[in-house]
Amino acid sequence: MKHVISLNGLDQSGKTTQAERIKEHYGLAHVVGKLKRYDVWPKLEGKAYFNWGFREGPTEEFVRIIYKSLTQRNKEIKETNAPLLVLDRGNHIFDSVCVATTAVREEWPAPRAKDFVMRIRKDYDLPNPAGLDIFLLHGDTPEEMFRVSFEREDLSNLDETSRAIYQRYQGVLANVLGNQINSGDYPIVRTDGPQEQVFERVRKLIDNTIRGSLNLSTIERIVGLGGLSECGKSTFGRHLEKKGFQRIKIGDIIDKIGERYSQITTDLQEGAYSSDPNFLAGLFLEELTQENSPEIVVESLHRFQFTAGIKRVLGNRFQIVYIETPRKIRIERESVKSSIELQESEKEVDRKDRVKTDREADKIRGIADLVIDNSGELDYSINQLNTALRLK
Fold first, then answer.
1. Sequence ranges of the domains in the chain
2. Which of 150-164, 231-245, 279-293, 317-331 has the lowest mean pLDDT?
3. Rounded to a whole number, what is the distance in angstroms from the first to the last CA of the chain?
């Protein structure tokens, strides 16, 4: 599933900063560029661009360029292969930009400017691509929002007349956006406090939206098998497969996710695992729903945060089984499996264990629904599993 969010607010409200933080945190995320990238915009910079936007040419031309650009952006969003896309402002706020610009250019009241803009907008098929439109709010009132934004803006390249025009534009835009906010058009994120706190507010909104969009109705139960190397995970997986569970290797699914989004990551597994573990857990579960199997056993659980993310989403439908086997037995098993001497087997087991503990695989024991002692007879261990999972 493709998740699209937009970050909205006045100029200098922190949209670019938060977009970069989202990209860094979620890993498999793509920030869609600004509208001015599209070829319908005039190739102007600085004062010439400002004059075109607020003084020169027909107002209708400016409004139509905005909506033509949004049409192109919607097409780009549809074609971009990424699980999370971040937009610099959503469709609603560009409506407000058009209204504010029209009001300033034509010296009209905002309601008349809105009527003018909406008549033009009807010529364009512009469904809102974003499932979440976040407004970054600095200030309790439109006046406060305008004041903070204007103070942060560098207008040193504008003459006094141009600064006055821009000030009027930001004032009208703040009032129009204030009406949208009061109408409940946006979930609000306050930008007061350190940027890290602001990002945490943004992240919670994104996580809740993504989690709420997951359709996992086809999954009745997932059993996840964890433990250190040669503890018996594969043996238990094969047993559950015989009991009717679909057996799936986690690495295969993660590779599939990496391959699907190779456009934005070059290292398939590590590229996927660089993503937020809760986000990756959602992508993983979406892949499992494509299997159309009510009961699935997955092996092996190597990463604690990723495992905890699945547990948070599925709750009791995800049963974590952690298998404990003494190191001596695991070394003997590795020796037989790889046809190597015990001394070499010990080195290999220790190497594998270091990799797993670096990924906090051993911490999974603390959130397991069942811990199985696999140091004795296999039949006894299997009976523990059957009893816990209520298998015949």
1. 3-211, 217-389
2. 150-164
3. 37
